[in-house]
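hey so i finally got around to running the thing on that chain from the lab meeting. sorry it took forever, my laptop kept dying and i had to restart like 3 times. anyway pasting the input first so we r on the same page abt which one it is
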Amino acid sequence: QVQLVQSGGGSVQPGGSLRLSCAASGFVLVVYGIGWFRQAPGKEREGISCISPNEDTIYYADSVKGRFTISRDNAENTVSLQMNNLKPEDTAVYFCATVQWCGNGSRGDFWGQGTQVTVSS
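ok and heres what got predicted. didnt touch it at all, straight out
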């Protein structure tokens, strides 16, 4: 079955860290750009990071720059998002998706199932 399977997420206090993973099943992830998106309650989905297939382009939204790190492990067919110094405003459902190009405004084509991240004291 062709799918993107997300793992990680959960609840953490402000200043804490979480790691999200996005694993491809049924296809090879290395040929695709992968983006991470999030959607907070009552807000539009926003792209926060992406990585091109050969890693020559990596993008971070200003809201997460310096705190989040995207990486890919082609041997494991996964892309991860390390999230440090989390803030309450990072609370959202996070999605990974394939993207045709990586940058501000890139759109997801094929989506993971989403995972909740809650930052609260």
